[in-house]
Model the fold of this input.
Amino acid sequence: MSTAKQKEAAVVAERLRNHKLSSSDFKQPADVVRWFGAVQAQEFHAAKWALALRMSHATNVAVEDAFNRGEILRTHLLRPTWHFVTPEDIRWLLQLTGPRVNVRCSSVYRQYELDEPVLKRSNRALTNALKGGKQLTRVELRAALNRAGIPADDGVRLAHILLRAELDGVVCSGPRRGNQFTYALLEERVGQSQELNGEEALAELTRRYFASHGPATLADFVWWSGLTTNDARRGIALLDSDVERFEIGENVYWSSGFATKRSRDIDAYLLPAYDEYNVAYKNRQVVFDQDSVPQITTWGALGPTVVVDGRITGIWKTTGNENSITITVTPSRHLRKHEKLAIAKAAQRYAAFLGSDLRMSWS
Done:
């Protein structure tokens, strides 16, 4: 194996470890979210499974209960999409990354005539509707906004009114009501939380990213965090010797250090859509199986993927109901017997997470 290939293999092995896929003793969903800083969560069920993959034992019910108790929250930060975040981290993360998300949403704000006076009024209307510990659905908040004279029947306009309220620290997720999401006032949902100034917050977000996602490049960190390239560079500089720099070809990687040898065991994982292992990098080529046929694009890697020995080796999907599911695996190359056994074990883990009977299908 060439030196470059050896280095890439080391990157993959270290990412598996840092993502807490190959080694984890986390017991609670909040432990996982705290380690990452934030976990992409617009696909709620997929995001619950992403957390469970990093825990020693977890069920769908247990992760859902933690969300409903407010041990993990779901809000917009980093990028214009939902993320899981812990209550103690939500305020400083919003302060650090919220302004950049607003910049990226500014054209939609203008298109739907959501200027600062309108958004201040909508924030007041949402506060009045939710105060006193109320948790309301999007439909109920739409009615409250309309009553306050703020048109909210257009779905995109309503979504951006609520997004701005999240970014301003007015609202965050409440407990689910059946399958419906609710919103709550952040001040009422979250008690005391960590306060970090600009430099401290930037250093902390940078530290968490490279500890949990490294080795990664500057461009990867910019993509994940939503920060400017200059701010991302400054964050790395603030860490000084806490991160190491190394090169593979023309790419410069940063890492908290290589602490473990590569495992000889073949592990397989059924990663959900938008799992941090795939979504948190601008360049995803390093985790593609080099022997696979090119049927999975870099954007396709954002869907449910089969990962064998750290490399994307296929895709998977489920059919069925809560009592019995069929997991269909479509490999992107010929699988050896021990690899198929590892994938079957990963499928059994997912079925156990759901509490469902399992049937395997190979496409």
Observations:
- The radius of gyration is 21 Å.
